[in-house]
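Lab notebook, design round three. We kept the backbone fixed and only want residue identities now. Task for the bench partner: fill in a sequence for the structure below.
Input C-alpha cells:
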C-alpha cells in the first residue's frame, strides 16, 4: 500500500509542478511584454499581440483544465514556447547586433 501511495504522490507532485511551471511561464511572459525595461519597448505591436494572445490562451486553458495530466501541461508549455521563442530570440539577436549585451537574457524555456 505504501508503495502505491508513494507512486500516486509522485504523480500528483509532477502534475502540480508541470501546472505551476506553465502558469509561471505565462505570467512571466505577460509581465515582460508590459515592462518597459524588459520586452515592452523592444517589440512591435504585432509581436506583443502574438505573445499576449498566446498567454491568454494558456491562462484560459489552465482555468478550464485544472485537473489536466502532466503531459497535457507539458504539451501546452511546448506550444507556448514554440509561439513566443522565435519572437523573443529575434529581439535578443537584434540587441546583440546593435551592440547590446544580450548576455543574460535568453529565450524562455
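Proposed sequence:
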Amino acid at each position: 500500500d505504501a508503495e502505491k501511495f508513494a507512486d500516486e504522490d509522485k504523480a500528483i507532485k509532477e502534475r502540480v509542478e508541470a501546472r505551476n511551471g506553465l502558469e509561471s511561464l505565462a505570467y512571466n511572459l505577460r509581465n515582460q511584454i508590459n515592462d518597459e525595461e524588459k520586452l515592452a519597448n523592444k517589440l512591435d505591436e504585432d509581436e506583443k499581440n502574438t505573445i499576449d494572445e498566446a498567454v491568454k490562451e494558456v491562462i484560459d486553458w489552465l482555468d478550464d483544465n485544472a485537473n489536466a495530466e502532466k503531459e497535457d501541461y507539458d504539451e501546452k508549455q511546448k506550444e507556448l514556447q514554440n509561439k513566443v521563442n522565435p519572437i523573443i530570440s529575434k529581439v535578443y539577436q537584434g540587441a546583440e547586433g546593435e551592440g547590446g549585451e544580450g548576455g543574460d537574457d535568453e529565450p524562455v524555456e
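Keep this in mind before ordering anything: The chain is about 75% helix and 0% strand.
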